[in-house]
Amino acid sequence: MVNLQNGKLAKNVLIVKIILMKKIVVSIIILTAISANAQQFINSGMIEYEVRINNHRMFGDGLFAEMFKDKMPNFSTTYYHLTFNDNKTIYKFDRLNEKDKLPWGSNNAEDNMWYNDFNSNTRVNQKSVCGWIRSYDQKSRTRMGFRSIP
């Protein structure tokens, strides 16, 4: 009689383990399905980038550099915006931080712009070089022209 009860007990424990395993497997499947539907894609938006330049390191060491280091801020900060919509992006200057502005200006950072159209594989870069704005189309690999900065 004792062996018969031990056999029934072992059989009941096995059934409970199988039911518990089924519950765990079903719970994992449900959680996976819920998390797969929770994914969202962003098609448009704007990201702000903060570009910090170490002004003291830019000058290096030496007597000339030491004269300027106490007259200028350690870091200068420029802000850029990356705006995107579908498969087009534009990255351009937004503003300077007025507290740590350099005495000689912003190096014409406000004229720099990068445009990408991923559908037509077009990239246009616009940079300010020595008082002139240079535009370059990377798809056709041609210079689009120069114009002077007023």
Report on this structure.
With 150 residues, the protein is an alpha+beta fold. It has one domain (44-148). It is built from three helices and seven strands; from the N terminus they run αβααββββββ. It has helices at 2-37, 55-59, 63-69, and strands at 44-54, 75-85, 88-96, 113-117, 122-129, 132-137, 142-148. It is elongated, with a radius of gyration of 32 Å. 1% of the residues are buried. The model has no long low-confidence stretch (mean pLDDT 77).
Core attributes:
alpha+beta; 38% strand; single chain; seven-stranded antiparallel β-sheet; 150 residues
What composes the largest sheet? 7 strands, antiparallel
* Count of structural domains: 1
Instruction: Please report the number of helical segments.
Output: 3
Shape: elongated
Number of strands: 7
Distance between termini? 105 Å
Any low-confidence stretches, pLDDT <50, length ≥5? none
State the helical fraction.
Answer: 25-40%
Structural class: alpha+beta
Strand content: 35-45%
Strand order of the largest sheet: 1-2-3-4-5-6-7
Order of helices and strands: HEHHEEEEEE
Overall pLDDT score: 77
Radius of gyration: 32 Å
